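user: At home tonight, take the chain set out below, taking as long as you need, and be ready to discuss the fold:
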Amino acid sequence: MTNSSVRIVSLIPSGTEILATLGLTDAIVGRSHECDYPLEIQNRPICTQARLNSNAPSRDIHYEVNNLLQSALSIYQIKTDVLEQLQPTHIITQDQCDVCAVSLSEVEKAVASLTHSSPQIISLQPNVLQDVWNDIERVGNAFDVDSVKVLENLEARVKICQQKIQGLSLTEIPAVTCIEWTNPLMTGANWIPELVNLAGGQSLFSVTGQPSPQLQWETLIVSNPDVIIFMPCGFDLNRTRQEAQLLTQRPEWQKLHATQAGRVYITDGNSYFNRPGPRLVDSLEILAEILHPEIFEYGYKGAAWEVL
């Protein structure tokens, strides 16, 4: 769309990445404080701020999140003054997770208060991979951009993974636990079990398309997975390494199969696994590389994941 009258504010990192993939980066006039990719959007005005301290210990973050949600406050607030100045024609937000971005109701409230513009709200609600494809198509349609090639490319990469693992026997498919939060212990759900299975693993504890469940420490020890992958929500590789130590210091940890086999991994969950946009396909390739290094080598190691 060459139409320069389109002014998009994206309030969710995955939304920003979807816009960029569709070639709409230039139409983005504002972003959330968490939108950091692609690099060229980092100079756009920031329209949200966090009400909590993400540098706090994970237990404190969890506690603070619950307190805010119980008092009917969004975890993030919208800077309505910035929004007013930007006069967007469209706002991209989400209605999937109140912990991941501004809630839809918060956006609707903010938009109702604007005097100079009445932007159209596009709300994404992805739970599984197909929903992400649908979101990409929906965003494309909203701006008259053809998403067919983008989707064909993403789906082709998924197919390559599927084809390469077809020859694996059941004994070659490891049982995998993906840890999305360390305190309390939670496992990654929604699209995560689907990605694990596509990458030639068997996902434990979580159901595709469902919210992330809490996991008892004893259950993790008893189930004794072959592979453990840390992907805490919103944390990069370094912070994930720190978080993992909360668990690896426990005495039972040394007895786990995964530990003894050297199959415990940390990932950059913030860039990949926690973002339901085009980079979920990168996330699939990262998992494939972790689970089956004998088949896959994409080159993500060291930047997106490491052995712990």
About this structure: The first strand starts at residue 8 and ends at 10. The radius of gyration is 20 Å. The chain has a mean pLDDT of 89. DSSP finds eleven helices and twelve strands in the chain.
